[in-house]
Amino acid sequence: MTSLPPQPLSPLDGRYRPAVAGLADYLSEAGLNRARVEVEVEWLIALTDRSLFGTSPLSESHRAQLRSLYRDFGQAEIDWLAAKEAVTRHDVKAVEYLVRDRLSTLGLDAIAELTHFACTSEDINSASYALTVQRAVTEVWLPRFRGVIARLRELAQEHRDAPMLARTHGQPATPTTMGKELGVFVWRLERVERQISASEYLAKFSGATGTWSAHLAAAPEVDWPELSRAFIESLGIDFNVFTTQIESHDWQVELYDRIRHAGGILHNLATDIWTYISLGYFSQIPVAGATGSSTMPHKINPIRFENAEANLEIAGGILSTLAQTLVTSRLQRDLTDSTTQRNIGVGLGHSLLALDNLTRGLGEISLAQPVLDADLDTNWEVLAEAIQTVIRAEIAAGRSQITDPYALLKDLTRGHRVGGTELAEFVRALDIGEDAKERLIALTPAGYVGLASTLVDQLD
């Protein structure tokens, strides 16, 4: 059997690439290398801005030319780095050589020795990962996540007053509204969104073991910790002053755990919507030309929610592994984080794919209110809670001599279907006040939703 032409091994780079391509700008190998070049270049500019070691601040023209190394980073640089790394067997060293090569081209050989000055690879890497992950999350993942929340909020408000039978333990329970139940997910997801939005993206810049030893040997008069802080913060990320050779990755652990948590809530949403579809509460809007089943022409399968469910599980597993692995580094440094962090894009990619499917799925469903109404009308026994609670209130007020109202209603309704007429007759025979009887007789399952509708208003 002949070999296939080169193919992507991961479905994220094949079948699903259109849905996740935005992440590749940041979390691919090329995206990481572009960020490394950015850090190396900006460090050069920072050192010359301080006129260290006899240098002078660069002209605006030279600054622009240097910054074009990462702003215009493209296939030529990708190929150059691949060829150089094949020789160096070291990815960050290859980046350093690229910057030195371009400095020579620009006639800036005089500052070439300040390239990667006093840096360990992890100074460059920690800043580069902070930049790439920050940009991937804030510019790609979070907007898609917020889009799901916004669509859910629209549905919650649209179905604010749509009564439906609740199902606790899968069994008929006190009615609610579809809007309120979707609003619960909005409320939960917005809380996690606030936590993710407030995430720190930390980097170190303190040398081989986090002590600025080489820096001080070269220039003991310089306040290197403050210079490093100012440099890292100038990149738009946060500074970690107290580290080993590596930045400790705790911010990554926190971020991936929060995104995994968001995924858990979304997984809950996907399975709930799937169940509502199976109950007939939501109908799926046919998509022109789409096939639901290869053999059953009538079917519209809830594939968006099933796809989301599966990808959230994959994302959760990868993100959990990232968090578990990155929290530990043996002594002052081991290399387990290096290969682990190369899978950040895979974890976020499956999460982003799930968000894409949820967005599309939530846009292709329509509430079937007649189904909800019919379900409510065949479950009048859910009013037993209201009746026994009113009886208790009447007993407390001295208007009833009934003993154990819970048992009374349990005997009437548990395991039995009870209709509206039967409940009305039961209520009329109760030893309670007339006002209470009138309220209970007027009550229907569809009207027994408490404050469900007004709770939705709190989403605003």
UniProtKB/TrEMBL annotation:
Top-level taxon in the UniProt lineage: Bacteria
One GO MF term: lyase activity
Location of the Fumarate lyase N-terminal domain: 64-308
Pfam families (alphabetical): ASL_C (PF08328), Lyase_1 (PF00206)
Keywords, alphabetical: Lyase, Purine biosynthesis
Keyword Lyase annotated: yes
Residue intervals of the Adenylosuccinate lyase PurB C-terminal domain: 329-449
Annotated Gene3D superfamilies: Fumarase/aspartase (C-terminal domain), Fumarase/aspartase (Central domain), Fumarase/aspartase (N-terminal domain)
Lyase as UniProt keyword: yes
Pathways involved: Purine metabolism; AMP biosynthesis via de novo pathway; AMP from IMP: step 2/2; Purine metabolism; IMP biosynthesis via de novo pathway; 5-amino-1-(5-phospho-D-ribosyl)imidazole-4-carboxamide from 5-amino-1-(5-phospho-D-ribosyl)imidazole-4-carboxylate: step 2/2
PANTHER family: ADENYLOSUCCINATE LYASE (PTHR43411:SF1)
Stated role: Catalyzes two reactions in de novo purine nucleotide biosynthesis. Catalyzes the breakdown of 5-aminoimidazole- (N-succinylocarboxamide) ribotide (SAICAR or 2-[5-amino-1-(5-phospho-beta-D-ribosyl)imidazole-4-carboxamido]succinate) to 5-aminoimidazole-4-carboxamide ribotide (AICAR or 5-amino-1-(5-phospho-beta-D-ribosyl)imidazole-4-carboxamide) and fumarate, and of adenylosuccinate (ADS or N(6)-(1,2-dicarboxyethyl)-AMP) to adenosine monophosphate (AMP) and fumarate.
This protein's name: Adenylosuccinate lyase
Native source species: Microbacterium sediminicola
